[in-house]
Amino acid sequence: MKQNNICFDTLKKECAARGLDPKSIPSFNHILDAEALAARQRQHAEFIHAVTYFFDKFIASLPGIPILATATDKHGYVLHMIGDSSIKEMVMKLGIQNGVQMTNEYNGINSVCLALDYQQPVGIVGSQHYHYYLHNAACYSIPIWNRNQNEEIGTLSFMTAVDFAHPLFLSLLMTMKESIERELQLMKQNENLRLLNELIMETTTSGLIVSDKEGNIINVNKAAERMVKQDKQSLLSETAANCPFVGDYLERALSKGLPSTDIERTFKSTSGRETTYLLDALPIFDQTDTLAGAFAQLRDITSRKETEQMLLNTEKLAAVGQMAASAAHEIRNPLTTIRGFIQLLKPSFFDQEHFNLVLEEIDRINLIISEFLILSKPQATCFGEQNLIQILHDTIALSQPQASMSNVQIIKYFDDPSPIFIHGDGNQLKQVFINLFKNSMDAMPGGGTLSVDVHMNVQGEAVAVVSDKGIGMTNEQLGQLGTPFYTTKKDGTGLGLMITQRILKQHDGSLDIQSTKGKGTTITLRFPVKKEETLK
Ligand code: ADP
Ligand code: MG
Q1: Are 170 and 155 in contact (CB under 8 A)?
Q2: Which ligand has the minimum distance to the alpha carbon of residue 448?
Q3: What sections of 152-261 are H helices per DSSP?
Q4: Neighbours of ion ligand 2 (CB under 5 A)
Q5: How far apart are CA 444 and CA 348, in angstroms?
Q6: Which protein residues touch ligand 1 with a CB less than 6 Å away?
Q7: Which ligand is nearest to the CA of 445?
Q8: Taking the domains of the chain in order of start, what are their residue ranges?
Q9: pLDDT in tens, 45-75
Q10: Quick one: how many helices (H) and strands (E) in the chain?
Q11: What pLDDT, on a 0 to 100 scale, did the predictor assign at position 250?
Q12: CA angle (424 as vertex; 418, 427 as ends), nearest 5
C-alpha cells in the first residue's frame, strides 16, 4: 500500500523539536471519564455495533497471534477495542484503554493520528515509530467515513508485534472498512425505510393488515385495530384466515394469489349504528413474482354512504314536494270555481246554516292548500316579526286533515287573542311545528290526543309545548335524537328533528324533550321574545 507524503524522518524531527523523549513510554493526557465515554459510545452506537461484529470475527480467526483491534472517533478517542490475550501485557503497559485519546503531541508518531491527518491508510512498522518502546510494534490504521452524510467517523486500527508485521494488514483493514461503511449505509437505509413504513402505516386513516406467505399476521396499524375491534398483540397471534372482517379475503389472496377489491361490508354495532367499510385484499409478490404475503385494507365509508343516502332522500323529498305542489294547484283552481258557483246558489239553498258550513269547509281546504304551497316552495330565510299564536293556528289547520285520518285529536290549550311576537322566519317556524306534529301523530298509530300550548313564562320567553300520549322513547333513543338519519320508522328520514334543532338554533331558541316509553312525549320549545320597544 502506498503511503503518500509521510516522511517518518521529518515527523521524528518534529517530535524531538516538541521535546518528546523517545526513551519514555508515551502517555495519554486526555482520558474520558466513564460518563463522557458512555455518551460518546452512544453517539457512535451503530458504528460500534458494526465494528464489534467484524473485530470479533477477525480476532477469533487468528488465535494466539498478538493483535489488538481498536476503533476511534474522528478526534482519536478509543471507543472500542478487542485484543487477543497474548497482547494484553503490551496494551496494559502502554495504558491503551477505551476513552484514551491518541494525539501527535503526546504519543509521537502513531498510526491513528496519521490516518486522520492524511486521510489515508497508514502502516508504521517497528523503528518508524518515534518512541523506542514501540519499535517492537507494528501499527496499521485506516480512516472510516459515514457514506450517508459524507462525514468522517474515525479510524479502524490493528496493532501487532513487529515480527508479525505484514502489508496484508492494511488490505484487511481496507476490506473491513468497506464492509462496515456499507453496513452503516444499509442500517441507515433500513431505518429510513422503517420510518417511512411506520409513517405510511400510522398516518393513513385506512386500516391495514399485513400477513406473510405462511398466513401469519405480521403487521397491523392503529386504524385496523380500531376497525376490527381487536388490539395489535392479539391480532399478531391470529392467522390471516381467522382475522375478523378480512380473513376470507386474505385467505383467497394467499391460497390463490387472487385480489379482492372494492368489497363493501356493513356491520351493525351493539348500539344499532351501522358502519360500512370498503375492503381490498391483495396478494404481495416479490421481484421474482413469488408470493411473499398478502395485505388487506379497510376504508370507513360510512359518512359517504350517509351522504349518498341523504342526497337520495333529499331528491326524493324534492320530487314528492314538486308533485304535491302541482297537485295542490290543480285542486285550488277547481275549488275557486266551485266556491263561486255555490255562492250563486245561495238564494236557493234550503238550509242557510249548511250553506255557510260548505263555504267554511271550502275556505279551510283553501287555507290548507295555500299553506302547503308556501311550505313546499324552497324559500330564502326571511326574518321578521312573527306571531307565534298565528303560526300555531296555521300549522294546526294544515295538519288537521292528517290528524283526522290518523284518528288524532289536536287540542289547543291556548285561545288567548293577544299575540306573542318573536323574531323569526315564518316558514321555518311552521316547518318546526309540522315536524313535531307529524312525529306525535306517528307515535300514536291507533289515534289519541295531541295537545298544543303556547304562553309566556316568567322569564319572559315564549314557550310552546307539544305533547302526545304516544309510544314514547327509551333513554337510549333520546340520546340518539338529532343525529342525522336516526329513525325508527320504516319510511322515516331521521331528518325531522335535526332540521327542527337547526331552525331553533337560528332563532336563539331551545328544545327540550321529555319522554317515557309507553306513556308519551312532551316537547317544549323556548324562544326569546321581541321586546316591546323594539317592536315599533
Ligand atoms: P323521522 O320522523 O323521519 O323518523 P325525526 O328526526 O323526526 O325522523 O325523528 C327521529 C326519531 O325520533 C323517530 O324515528 C322516533 O323514533 C323518535 N321520535 C321523534 N318524536 C317522537 C315522539 N313524539 N314520540 C316517540 N318517538 C319520537
Ligand atoms: Mg319526523
Answers
A1: no
A2: 1
A3: 168-203, 222-228, 232-236, 247-256
A4: 439, 496
A5: 44
A6: 435, 439-440, 443, 468, 470-473, 477, 481, 486-489, 492-498, 521
A7: 1
A8: 8-193, 205-300, 303-380, 384-536
A9: 989 999 999 888 888 888 888 899 999 999 9
A10: 17, 17
A11: 94
A12: 95
Contacts of residue 441, defined as CB under 8 A and 6 or more positions apart, other chains included, come to 399, 402, 403, 406, 408, 450, 468
Q: 8-193 domain in CATH 3.30.1120.10?
A: no
Please tell me the least confidently modeled range out of 74-78, 283-287, 336-340, 409-413.
336-340
| Ligand 1 pocket test target in 402, 439, 475 with most atoms within 8 Å of CB | 439
Sign of the alpha-carbon dihedral angle for 367, 369, 375, 380: negative
Q: How far apart are CA 114 and CA 15, in angstroms?
A: 13
pLDDT tens digits for 417-473?
789 999 999 888 998 999 999 999 999 999 999 999 999 998 889 999 999 999 999
Query: Superfamily for 205-300?
Result: PAS domain (3.30.450.20)
520, 468 in Cβ contact below 8 A? yes
Angle between helices 302-345 and 352-376 (to 10 degrees): 150
Atom 7 (ligand 1) nearest CA: 496
Pick the CATH number of 303-380 from 1.10.12, 3.40.50, 1.10.287, 1.20.120: 1.10.287
Question: Does domain 384-536 fall into CATH 3.30.565.10?
Answer: yes
Cell numbers placing 5: 507524503
Closest ligand (CA of 467): 1
Pick the atom of ligand 1 nearest to 435's CA: 7
> Grid cell 316537547 — which residue?
523
Residue 489 has pLDDT above 90, yes or no: no
Q: 435 Cβ partners below 8 Å, 6+ apart?
A: 496, 497, 499, 500
Contact present, 392 and 452 (Cβ < 8 Å): yes
pLDDT (mean) for 233-246: 91
pLDDT score at 378: 59
pLDDT tier for residue 1 given thresholds of 50, 70 and 90 = very low
Domain 8-193 matches domain 303-380 at the CATH topology level: no
* CA of residue 85 to ligand 1 center, whole Å: 88
First to last CA, the chain: 106
Task: Supply the pLDDT for residue 144.
Answer: 94
Query: Could you tell me the three cell numbers for 391?
Result: 303560526
Q: Please determine, for residue 385, whether its predicted confidence score (pLDDT) is greater than 80.
A: yes
**Ligand 1 centroid from CA 496, angstroms:** 8
Nearest Cα to Cα of residue 52 among 123, 142, 156? 156
